[in-house]
Amino acid sequence: MQEPELLRNLQPIWLSRATEAMARSLNIRDDLRAQLERFFFLLTQAVETGNPEWLDPVLDEWASSLTQTDLEARESNLLSFIREIMQRTIDVCRQTLHEEQALSLIVDIIPHLTYCYEKAAQAEIQVRVSYVSNQLKQVQQTLERLDRSKSDFIAVAAHELKTPLTLVEGYAAMLREVLNKKELSPYEQELLNGISTGTKRLKLIIDDMIDVSMIDNNLLSLNFQPVWVNRLLSVIKNELEPFIKERHQTLEIYDFPGSSEMTFGDPERLLQVLRNVLTNAMKYTPDGGKITVDGRLLPGFIEVVVNDTGIGIAPEDQLLIFDKFARLGNSDLHSSGKTKFKGGGPGLGLHIARGIIESHGGAIWVESPGYDEEKLPGSTFHILIPHRREPPDEKLARLLAPVIGAA
Ligand code: ADP
Fold it and tell me: What is the mean pLDDT of the chain?
């Protein structure tokens, strides 16, 4: 007897055994018997023609009925269904036919069942991949929502704090004026100074929060003007000089090719970048350490390189520190002073620096052999400022024509 004929004869017994076994073990489908009947018919056609694609319609139907619940439950999935069919088919052949007939039929059937298994595996992987990527999309949407509400919170909090702070500043100034007319004791003077330092620090933090919310919402607008890097650096040097002395540190600023070139940028914002990076260099370098500022002229960019002999930054943190509120746990938790060794800040300085530099069209990054408070490997910050010889808009070009001509 030919194999397809043999198969057809086996159909009733295969059907009842397969239906019974699968209904019990896999706990699925009400119309299981009808489905299996169709499968068996197509399997017979496949064996008869030698073409396993006969089985495609039923396999595609099963694959498309794979649901998320199937995947989550990790049972009654298509692969175990096909595996069960394979097992039942081989059992029925062995138990019902002579050994030789069983063997020859199994040899004929196996390639078709293997085909089913491969197709089922592919279908299941596809469904799983789209299930996982859907889940990833959901997680990403949740994260984006969280980040948005964090930004909204920062913006609202900063603006709400600014109004009472301005009041405190105003009243403190008036109080100082009134009291200045009298002779103040050192204690009274100290109290007044305390209010003034506190409000100044709070103002800086609130300004940073407003900058962060502008950067995160792409609202940072730059006021382009002619800028010279060496002039910005000398402003910073003057600002930092007293603190450098206090910390017994050395600050060396070199004249490098590019430092005296004119470029267009926002001087206030670029000062803020240099101030943040240099203040950090001081903060994360112990007393007596050295900070150098050098650089070079690159095609289209002026590169400023700030190097310190401080505690360094671990490779895994070198990207992280540019995220907002990134603090590495190597600085004090409480904001204890802008230039004190490891005196922590709110963790906004580098995020703002990156926002400003990127909106200029530049880049900022750090290199460091690692973090070590004893060996002090140091850190090197690279700041790429675009070298713009032309003002970014025509109106400004007309306005600045005499200045640029004179420079
Ligand atoms: P913070 O207000 O904490 O200084 P920043 O955004 O300026 O915030 O810096 C983020 C973190 O990056 C700091 O808390 C510190 O851990 C690390 N960091 C920044 N600059 C340096 C540096 N020059 N050397 C070592 N660590 C640094």
Answer: 87
d(CA 161, CA 208): 12
| Half-sphere exposure (Cβ direction) of 157: Cα atoms closer than 13 Å | 14
Amino acid letter, 253:
I
What is d(CA 353, CA 216) in angstroms, rounded to the nearest whole number?
12
DSSP collapsed to 3 states, 260-298: CCEEEECHHHHHHHHHHHHHHHHHCCCCCCEEEEEEEEE
Q: What does the DSSP 8-state code read for residue 330?
A: S
Convert the pLDDT of each residue in 36-86 to its tens digit: 899 999 999 999 999 999 999 998 888 877 665 555 555 447 888 888 888
Asked whether 322 and 350 are in contact (CB, 8 A), the reply is yes
Q: Give the pLDDT mean for 325-342.
A: 66
Q: Please tell me the number of Cα atoms within 13 Å of 66 on its side-chain side.
A: 27
Nearest CA to ligand 1 atom 8: 347
What residue ranges line ligand 1, CB within 6 angstroms?
276, 280-281, 284, 308, 310-311, 313, 321, 326-328, 330-331, 344-351, 379
Top pLDDT among 394 and 349 is at 349
pLDDT at 320 over 90: yes
Report the pLDDT value the prediction gives residue 49, as an integer from 0 to 100. Answer: 93
CB 289 within 8 A of CB 309: yes
